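Known limitations

Files may contain more than one protein. Parsers should not assume a single record per file. Below, a two-record file is shown to illustrate correct handling: read the sequence, read the token line, then continue until end of file.
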Amino acid sequence: MNIFQLKDKVIEKLAEKRSDFNTSFDREKEMLRVERKDNKKGIDVSLSKAMDKFKKDSNFADEIVYYIDETLERMKEEKIDPEQAVIYPVVRSTSFPDKTKNGVDFIKDSHTNETDIYYAIDFRKSYRLIDEELASSLGMRQEDIRTLADNNLRKLKIEMSRDTLQENDFYFVNHNDGYDASRILNGEFLDEMHEKCEGEMMVGLPHQDVLIIADVKNNVGYDIMAQMMMQYFAEGLTPITSLSFSYREKKLEPVFILGKQRNYNKRGNDDETDIQ
């Protein structure tokens, strides 16, 4: 299946669920745009990245359609009850738009040189980023939104799986709730992991739906982390950054790893890894 066939498949499956949308396709960027007919609000889906994942899982098209359908549903004009609104922080790349398509500023805070913090109202199956107009309608200041989001984030459970490669431990947070990367903002969790690490603690948020923490105990560990980050970054529907972060003294510092290691599943490779 090629990009164009995947596009047709997604549109066909979405049409089985609803008819209130229009589509357009940017051939150069291989980007599918899906908009509501009533208010022109919509979503852009990178089919080139989706294609990579579809090749590994033929059911991924259904996941894309579900994601689009839920997003379009939440984009219809509706009033939000501030008493029932559940707000969480979400992490995005610094290249992510800072305004809505209508030119309204999103509520956001700085995080690192590579990332910013946005805020979203959760609808269980999807969420909406908070802009200044929405914040005003909720009667909330940015400080209020920040405090509420931080408190809600700390209540999210954190479960991890672990892989050990070449004596380095890699932990994966992957709840698929839309806030996996957001858990990097939980300082208590990061401190607990730092206490557990025997080597250098590296943290990665390649895309929205995963957080990777590495206990790097030897040089090859840095290269494994770099390769993981590139792979996850390429596969994510909402990519954030392919760079890893070193966590020390309660601070995240972006690290560029120029890996020289290869075939890291084989033992006895003593090549060095440059870290900048």
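...continuing to the second record:
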Amino acid sequence: MVGALVFVGSKMGLPYAPPLVLAALRLDIAGLLLVPVVAFQYEYWLPQTRRDFIGVALTGVFTLGMTNTLLLTGQQYVSSAVGAIAYSLMPMLMTAFAVLLLPAASLDRSDAVGIGLGFIGALIVANPTPATLLTARVVGVGIMLASVVVFALGSVLTQRLDPSMPRITLTAWGALLAGLFNHAVTLRFGASLAAVDWTIQTVYALFVLGVLATAILYTVHFELVDRIGPSRTSLTFYVQPIVAALLGWLLFRRRVTVGVFVGFLVIVSGFALIEYRLLFRLWRNFVGVGTRE
């Protein structure tokens, strides 16, 4: 639910602020909220080792900075549901990058087919044809997919680096650095805070993006990773498009086309192939609980 608010909040704020400025403000808010929280909760809350500092730089400039620049730029051209569907490729891309970059990771036949299905599903969602190749919608999906690639690659690189800091602490400092990075990008491309139309809708959008969809989302995400593991946590990526589609219809009257729905189902099928062992265990546990009751 919370994750879907990233895409809904973006659509709320983009009419009133340039995407690069909106991305920078989102990360400013998240960093300013998260750093005091981790300082209160964790003894190890300041970067101390060389790997910690490299991890913060990687997270700030690459994983969060570039990702949010691309995400907000691409979200101008697509609905919140399509944006969420693009991000449902995340678990498959992380699997692919892990195989390439992590020594212990390996790829079997079902993984390879699942990753392939994910990209086929993304193509169905984008629906590129010679006539529509440069339309705003196709370009928007392409930028969103680039955002997913950058985030997945940055996450796996950080995993390989293995800094000593807790993940949420690393993210908190990374968010602050990412905000500064995005402000620098806005200046490079001629955008500024003066371009923001400060309406009540802008404030709502920044609250949704900075507080709910970033500070709270990251806290919940890493808590879930610690409690149930990354594989089960990745299942939340497949709830986001459903919630985003419902909220997009309620708030913006945007409908999901048949092609987008079919593409999403293909992506989900790809994930099911990659994580079929996990899904089988979850199903067996669920049936077992039902039988005992």
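Parsers that stop after the first record will miss the second one. For reference, the second record is described as follows. DSSP finds 13 helices and no strands in the chain.
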